[in-house]
Design goal:
34% of the residues lie in helices and 27% in strands. It is α+β, with helices and mostly antiparallel strands.
């Protein structure tokens, strides 16, 4: 059977911006990147609201392009209504590019704005999505070339986003994937800094999706890092049958649940507490089905980003499943790094205790207030 055999995602604040207005979601067969726009923290709010709408998709009952359209419509309505109620958020919005992998490798996509979806097949990189931007319209009209668009001073001016209007036009398209295909979703923080030729060179490597995503992020930062950059990648291949999958899951569940933070200098602070937590999560999801999604939305914990070293608040539960599937994603990145904390504070803060969002924010805020 054709399906996802590897996947990874990462988001990074660039060198210019003080906060990360990108959000992303990886939830089994569902992948989404959102790039917020708007003054102050409004863009971050808009992209987070978009991610929350996608987290609510009932993947048991909702499938295909209809599920993506529904989530985008819900997000657009919520962002529009909140901006109307809170004048300081007026004008906020977000782009979104999403993919939902179905049976036999069928993939549905949805896109609004200039975040992108790419396909690498047989060594060739193909842009799947169409930018909704000023420069895209100029290219379509023959007024500038693709190369000129890449350097155009208004390349970041989008013509279509979620939020400003009560309804939004959504592009949807589909792909029949083949074994060996790699799909990339990314914000324009990547494509504005890294050429498509360089993106293709990274994607054609034999490295894991996690390594590929990290290289892409580093390339964007090395290229200037003028914007926040987010990238998600997943590969399609022949997945193991049910018996093999059950055996693999059983093997993972026997891992020592106490393999937590390996030392006090912060390395591997992104624990792999797979054993006990995986068993609990699999049982909960099996029993609650779609209702488990609500639990994931309400649960938060504090951790740290392996690449940036920054303290982060995550939504979900601290579990990494097979094929790179994670039951959590970052919703806030602090300017404080774990290296600045003493060992006892790190131990207390990174206990991976499930909290409410308010409790997690309060814990991180106390650290930030005491940090120079």
């Amino acid at each position: 059977m054709i399906g996802i055999v590897d996947s990874a995602g990462q988001s990074q604040t660039g060198h210019v911006r003080t906060s990360n207005e990108d959000s992303y979601l990886m939830r089994g067969p569902l992948f989404m990147v959102a790039d917020g726009v708007g003054g102050a923290a409004a863009g971050e709010i808009a992209s987070t609201m978009c991610a929350e709408a996608f987290a609510e998709i009932d993947l048991i009952r909702q499938r295909g392009a209809d599920a993506l359209r529904s989530a985008i419509g819900t997000a657009n309505t919520r962002i529009f209504e909140r901006a109307a109620q809170e004048p300081e958020l007026s004008g906020m919005g977000t782009t979104v590019t999403a993919a939902l992998v179905g049976d036999s490798g069928h993939i549905d996509f949805a896109n609004v704005g200039d975040s992108r979806a790419y396909l690498l097949r047989d060594g060739n990189l193909q842009r799947l999505s169409e930018d909704h931007s000023v420069v895209a319209e100029l290219v379509a009209a023959g007024q500038i070339t693709e190369d000129e668009a890449w350097r155009h001073p208004q390349r970041n001016v989008v013509t279509r986003v979620l939020g400003p209007e009560p309804a939004v036009k959504i592009d949807t398209f589909a792909l029949e994937a083949r074994p060996g295909d790699t799909v990339l979703l990314c914000s324009d923080g990547l494509t504005d800094m890294v050429t498509e030729e360089d993106v293709a060179a990274v994607l054609t490597s034999d490295e894991s999706c996690e390594q590929v995503v990290r290289k892409l992020i580093r390339s964007a930062l090395a290229g200037g890092g003028e914007d926040n950059v987010t990238a998600l990648a997943f590969r399609i291949g022949e997945v193991v049958d049910d018996d093999d999958r059950t055996a693999a899951a059983r093997q993972i569940l026997t891992v020592d649940p106490d393999l937590d933070d390996r030392d006090d200098d912060g390395r591997s602070i992104h624990w792999r507490r797979v054993g006990l937590w995986s068993a609990i999560a699999l049982v909960v999801i099996a029993l609650l089905g779609a209702g488990a999604v609500v639990g994931l939305r309400e649960s938060h914990f504090v951790g740290a980003n392996e690449t940036t070293g920054r303290i982060e608040i995550y939504q979900g539960v601290p579990i990494d499943l097979v094929a790179g599937v994670k039951l959590y994603h970052a919703v806030y990145a602090s300017p404080v790094t774990y290296a600045a904390l003493d060992p006892q504070t790190r131990k207390d803060l990174f206990d991976h205790r499930l909290r409410s969002l308010e409790s997690a924010r309060a814990a991180v805020k106390r650290i930030e207030q005491g940090s120079p």
